[in-house]
Design brief:
The chain is an alpha+beta fold and 149 residues long. It is 42% helix and 14% strand. It has a three-stranded mixed beta sheet, with no helix packed on it. The longest helix is centred in the first third of the chain and has 15 residues. The protein is globular, with a radius of gyration of 18 Å.
Length: 149
């Protein structure tokens, strides 16, 4: 079974646990979510799912996303006041860099940043329970991403 198929079955199981029927439109939404690696907003999910099932409504997308968020299957992000964007709940923590010109969302993880946050919290007498780091920037002219860390 592919990773996408496992995710799709997991989403279906969580909705059934919530007492929700898996209709054709919902299955289309779940299929899109299980296959996506980006951070689509509700309209993008709606447009992608509509190509699978033209009967889908935007309200079905919103209701389904809310249920999945409540069940911890997806995470909602509101980057820089834009529309809410969604991603699959990650097994491992990561942070985001948002390109202000393209809207691209780049996921990254930095042990140095995590250590520094822990050090600051400890110095102030706290244990970090949860955090979210979002960096906003513009690509330098002529630069290429360098994978570090």
């Amino acid at each position: 079974m592919t990773e996408e198929a496992k995710k799709l079955r997991g989403y279906e199981a969580r909705l059934r646990e919530a007492g929700v029927r898996i209709t054709r439109p919902r299955r289309a939404i779940l299929q899109i979510l299980s296959e996506t690696a980006d951070h689509p907003d509700a309209m993008e999910i709606f447009q992608r799912a509509s190509s699978i099932d033209p009967t889908i409504s935007l309200s079905t997308v919103y209701r389904t996303m809310k249920l999945l968020e409540d069940k911890g299957e997806i995470q909602r992000h509101a980057f820089a006041g834009g529309p809410s964007r969604f991603e699959q709940a990650a097994a491992e923590h990561h942070d985001h860099l948002i390109d202000l010109d393209t809207g691209d969302v780049i996921e990254f993880h930095s042990e140095r940043i995590e250590q520094l946050q822990d050090e600051i919290a400890r110095r102030l007498g706290y244990d970090i329970v949860h955090h979210r780091l979002e960096l906003y920037g513009r690509k330098r002219k002529g630069s290429k991403p360098t994978p570090r860390e």
